[in-house]
Amino acid sequence: MAIALVTGASRGIGKATALQLAQEGYTVAVNYHHNIKAATDVINHIIEAGGRAFAVRADISDESQVLAMFDSIDREGEPLTALVNNAGILFEQSTIENLSAERINRVLATNVTGYFLCCREAVKRMSFKHNGKGGAIVNVSSAASRLGAPGEYVDYAASKGAVDSLTTGLALEVAAQGIRVNCVRPGLIYTDIHASGGEPGRVDRVKSALPMQRGGQPEEVAQAIVWLLSEKASYVTGSFLELAGGK
Ligand code: NAD
């Protein structure tokens, strides 16, 4: 038995991933930030289906909370062999003229620093160098890292560009230590992340510009993440999987 940590697992892509990883036999550490009820619902869902899961609260942008989260995972007594860096934030649409330093810093703190901190703590536990059993990490980036988000969320797009570079560099650094590091780049996925930003009709406008003419479901991203973490992807590291309807 082994633990998979999924950050931001109380809803959206993280929730779908947690549910599928439990079906694969992982004990799932369900990270949440504020909403313990939603996290508990995910855990109950997993347990009712015969799986194993527990909740770990942490704001991933806060180092002390990340350290406490990994300590509580250690206390479960099973090795951590999978990390899904999924928790992320996206603010409302804004041109660069209106981007405040506070907003830029918050986006980078969660979408970049948070990913770094969780990678660092996971590597300490997975690496052969530290007597770990090896493992796999999947970073959830975005198609925005390739396409930009002009006039909309250039801060968010840039933060995901950093996630891409983290993936490439870390995959090389830890390949010989038994850890694979890969990345998924979702496009438009129907989750609550779109509730806070965007002009009315934005989601429909983006959707109609997609070759597949539809957005994706969180479960479609989750199944790619599960595959990248699995032994079926045993020779895959430093790779990027586009989940963006052909864009
Ligand atoms: P979501 O808003 O439904 O879920 C994000 C989760 O992250 C939430 O549970 C939230 O509480 C959590 N979170 C945010 N800040 C946190 C923090 N500081 N500490 C801990 N948890 C925190 O959104 P989603 O669409 O499921 O997004 C998941 C990931 O997918 C994000 O990284 C997002 O950037 C990425 N993504 C989403 C889309 C999309 O269209 N939905 C497209 C590309 C990439």
UniProtKB/TrEMBL annotation:
Keyword match Oxidoreductase:
yes
The record's listing under InterPro entries reads: NAD(P)-bd_dom_sf (IPR036291), Sc_DH/Rdtase_CS (IPR020904), SDR_fam (IPR002347)
In terms of Gene3D superfamilies, this protein maps to: NAD(P)-binding Rossmann-like Domain
Keywords (alphabetical) are: Oxidoreductase
Q: Family membership, please give it.
A: Belongs to the short-chain dehydrogenases/reductases (SDR) family.
Kindly provide the name given to this protein in its UniProt entry: NAD(P)-dependent oxidoreductase
Q: Which organism is it from?
A: Lelliottia aquatilis
